[in-house]
Prior knowledge:
The structure holds two protein chains of two kinds. Chain A folds into two domains: 2-99, Ubiquitin-like (UB roll); 109-299, Alpha-Beta Plaits. Helices cover 19% and strands 16% of the residues of chain A. Chain A has eight helices and 13 strands. In chain A, helix 2 packs across helix 3 (119-127). Chain B has three domains: 18-229, NADH-ubiquinone oxidoreductase 51kDa subunit (Rossmann fold, 3-Layer(aba) Sandwich), CATH 3.40.50; 232-334, Ubiquitin-like (UB roll) (Roll); 339-450, NADH-ubiquinone oxidoreductase 51kDa subunit, iron-sulphur binding domain (de novo design (two linked rop proteins)), CATH 1.20.1440. Chain B contains 20 helices and twelve strands. Chain B has helices at 18-23, 28-36, 39-49, 61-67, 91-98, 100-114, 128-143, 174-181, 210-221, 224-229, 261-266, 311-314, 318-321, 339-353, 359-376, 384-395, 403-427, 429-432, 437-440, 443-450; strands at residues 76-82, 116-123, 148-151, 156-164, 205-209, 231-232, 235-236, 238-245, 251-256, 280-284, 293-294, 329-334. In chain B, the strands form three sheets. Chain B has a five-stranded mixed β-sheet with strand order 3-4-2-1-5, sandwiched between helices. In chain B, a hairpin with a 2-residue loop joins strand 6 and strand 7 (235-236). Chain B is globular, with a radius of gyration of 23 Å. Chain B starts with 17 loop residues before the first helix and ends in a 5-residue tail after the last helix. At the A-B interface, helix 2 of A face helix 14, helix 15 and helix 16 of B.
Amino acid sequence: MKVTIDGQSIEVEPGTTILQAARMIGGESVPPAMCYYSKLKGSGGKCRCCLVEVAKGSDADPRPMPKLMASCVTGCMDGMEVNSTASERVQDARKSVTEFLLINHPLDCPVCDQAGECDLQNLSFKHGKSQTRYIEEKRTFEPENIGPNIQLHMNRCILCYRCVMVADQLTDNRVHGVMDRGDHSNISTCISKAIDNEFSGNMIDVCPVGALTDKTFRFKSRVWFNKPFNAHRECTTPGCCGKTTVWMFGGEIQRVTGRKDEYHEVENFICNTCRFDKKEVSDWTIEGPRKFEKDSVINQNNYTRKLDTVVIETEEGILKGREEDRKKISMPAVPLDREENAVFKNGNV
Amino acid sequence: MSQKILLDKINVPGIKTYEVYRREGGYASVEKALKTLTPDEVVEEVKTSGLRGRGGAGFPAGMKWSFIDKKSGKPRHLVCNADESEPGTFKDRFLMEYIPHLLIEGMITSSYALGANLSYIYIRGEYMWVYKILERAIAEAKAAGWLGKNILGSGYDLELYVQIGGGAYICGEETALIESLEGKRGNPRIKPPFPAVSGLWANPTVVNNVETIAAVPWIVNNSGADYAKIGIGRSTGTKLISASGHIKNPGVYEIELGLSVHEFMNSDEYLGGMIDDRPLKAFVPGGSSVPVLPANLIYKTANGEDRLMTYESLSDGGFATGSMLGSGGFIVYNDTACIVRNTWNFSRFYHHESCGQCSPCREGTGWLEKVLHRIENGHGREEDIELLWSIQSRIEGNTICPLGDAAAWPVAAAIRHFKEEFEYHIRFPEKIKNRDHFVAEPFEKVRHLVAKQTV
């Protein structure tokens, strides 16, 4: 099947979604996704960040789709033409969704452990505005303790349902879920239960924002001060691959996470023993530095890529000014000194 | 006197009970369908009748039935949507409360047409007493052999259950209803797949409104062509209208589609005109989620034709000058009503009822409500009208289910037709602080305060 996204065509298998096809193409036309997670069945469709415009349904039925479609749950059809970044409507929709997600978000990035690797931060960098039109009080929740390893910060949650799906699909007993409805729906354990399943830590990795963070890493360091290394160990927990990324500060392992790809999705889920209990360098075989592929806050000035010195690329003339403006118009009797003369001739370059 | 199809026998004493209902010719459609018609013939009759879904969207029922996936060999289900929660709509309650066997009969005939052996009536939790009435009616029907195994010796089996919901508006959306029926949180599903392919327990399912299903027995007893003769154009048959507001005779009325709005409003057979001598200001023709119309667009469409009670006529002119028939919740306002307060009240409802699954609706409905609340209470800012317009346009069309649209449309229509009232609230907060602003001083008297002035 042939699909065209923002003018670039690609052959895909039947059953591929538009988002997956866009990711195969890569680059600018990949829609942002806050709730879709390729490793979790049934995820996607909720955040509406990945809306795209289907300009041509398929070869068989070339009519355009009237509404914007969530690309993560819309299957490709043969001959489909999709506008992602190219469409103004789509850009506008993404701006709207970003605004909606941010109105009740506490915007506490300076004290949030997720800052630097946060999908919402990236989204607002790209599609957000620096002003807000929301003057009301933000919605807040009572803090809830969900156990010794995971910190729940409900105010930051964007209700992507990923952590609920992790609990459903990776662990045998889900003790948390979404309570209430509307803008008061919240992730909770209902009657304050601890989430202590061996794979529960993956909720932290799948959380796109700072709603679920690692208690063992809480307030230790900003993520961009850490150096990530690929590491592995012989893990005895059934179902755990033992392949992780360890985040080091000097000789200290401050945090262990799954290996995330450019879309912030882990390659393999890891167990809580690897994540929370193995913080000694001797526990791990370190393979080498981990690279970031995706542009985001965390890899600005990252050491793994070449850093260029800043050069202001402007035309000479801009700094020099127009010829007629540079004529000396007053006090002709007072001669210019040498320095002034040079400035007059060449401009203040 | 126009023809009655659903409420024909409503005044027969004891019609609630099986004996009376049967004596009055009830369950004849089941006999006719099971003994003389094939399921496909029933579907064909419903198709020719042009019966459209009475829940709000107005999708042709026969068409919906014909989409059901019969090839997969999976068991099929019919689900009756009795989760009537649209503010202003109470027709299904009336039907189920006073003539429950009509719905049961419709369910049996429709299930037979779809080949469903397990059907459900999903009723909202607030209708607990109606639930008991339906349970009793089902027990009576079962005792009389209309439900269960081998009905009338035809070899057709049907089990019918009533399921009570928790009382969430969103569970009236068909996929959320199915989720709720499966025992999950009532979040709408992402479509496709449509319920006709993968609905209840991933089986092909048809979800129909109470009134749609209740119309089926008449269609089978008579014929689809007879039903199509009633009404105008693509709006065939009769429709129940739940009328409320500032009118003389509020209540549930059965009308032939094609009746003019003017006649419906003013004839003594129906609403009997306004409640007192205060003039008509606005009306909502189809429940809270459809756009409100100002007085000058109620009886006449924008191009001067009579406005009729049909799907087409009410939506004539698009959203700029039209509205929708929706579920038939006919709400009338006289000039004491404050449109800003009314819009805020609707917004509050949608804020409360949003399921919280997708971002534009979850965050946007709350935002709309807060801004409207501010304006209504005299804390509005001049830019808030612009802001409301922008928020509603950003919710509309970007959500999973139509609740987002339903929350956006009333706000859009109120601003479109009654912008001056919003300006009045914002510019003269001291005039609205006592909440009696339009009772003492109708808007017409103060309109000049917000009129554009050229100096």
